[in-house]
Specification:
This protein is of the alpha/beta class. The chain has a single domain (7-194, 222-243), classed as NAD(P)-binding Rossmann-like Domain (Rossmann fold). Helices cover 44% and strands 15% of the residues. It contains 8 helices and 7 strands. It has helices at residues 16-27, 39-49, 61-75, 102-127, 149-152, 158-178, 203-211, 222-234, and strands at residues 7-11, 31-36, 52-55, 80-83, 140-145, 183-190, 242-245. α4 (102-127) runs parallel beside α6.
Length: 254
């Protein structure tokens, strides 16, 4: 899938992975719409890259439908969709005072799994009606965000790991189903990323974490995630895959 003049939707585009991806794809000539609950953050990035910002709650069918319609009105129907919206949801199953609240577990899965699925299903439905492009007769590509926690979830990551494991398991069946409409589905599983969420980490804690990463011994840069998104968009042969980007890190139990 070519980037130039191609409509793109990025959820969670107001910061971190989403913002870095928006910047890189816009540099390639894509027409980018940033969807985020934090409209101020998305608007700041949109102004920087000459894109558009749309307030959106990925867990709401009406909100996503409205956001997709607004993006389509401005840029045309999206052929590239990248889902970066998500929450961490740290907590032990058995806390000191009581077991994890069921509502907490459900909320993490609602945002990370149902939210990504909501965007995927509605975007794919719109893509199915588009004309085919290129020798591969491709209509679109959807990229979700998993995590290496899907494979090596640590103590305190039960909800988060379960949610990202679901994204991993969703990838292949979605790719197989969407093959008939010419839409590819892939996912990226990052290790620890240098985003605003870890900016407040004490220096000693950060150094200890980086020391566990074989090479390079540092956190993943958001720009490196974005570069992988760009490659997955442009390489039509990659479909149904979950790609780790983690410096060969395999996390221990804690």
């Amino acid at each position: 899938m070519e980037l130039k003049n191609t409509p793109v939707i990025i959820t969670g585009g107001g910061s971190g992975l989403g913002a870095a991806t928006a910047r890189l794809l816009a540099q390639g000539g894509a027409k980018v719409a940033l969807l985020d609950r934090n409209l101020a953050g998305a608007d700041a990035v949109a102004k920087e890259i000459k894109g558009i910002a749309i307030e959106c709650d990925v867990t709401s069918e009406d909100s996503v439908k409205s956001a997709l319609a607004a993006a389509a009105k401005a840029h045309g129907e999206a052929r590239i969709v990248v889902s970066c919206a998500g929450i961490l949801g740290a907590g032990r199953i058995l806390g000191r005072e009581a077991p994890m609240e069921l509502s907490f577990f459900e909320q993490v899965l609602r945002v990370n799994v149902a939210g990504s699925f909501n965007v995927l299903r509605l975007a794919a439905d719109a893509m199915a009606k588009l004309t085919e492009m290129g020798d591969a007769k491709e209509r679109g590509v959807i990229i979700n965000t998993a995590s290496i926690a899907a494979y090596e979830g640590q103590i305190g990551q039960a909800a988060y790991a379960a949610s990202k494991g679901a994204i991993v398991s969703l990838t292949l069946p979605a790719a197989r189903e969407f093959a008939r409409i010419g839409v590819r589905v892939n996912a990226i599983a990052p290790g620890p990323v240098d985003t605003p969420m870890v900016a407040g980490m004490p220096d000693d804690v950060r150094a200890s974490l980086e020391a566990t990463i074989p090479f390079p011994s540092r956190l993943v840069k958001p720009q490196e995630y974005a570069a992988l998104v760009k490659h997955l968009v442009e390489n039509v042969a990659i479909n149904g895959e979950v790609v780790r980007i983690d410096g060969a890190l395999r996390m221990g139990p804690k």
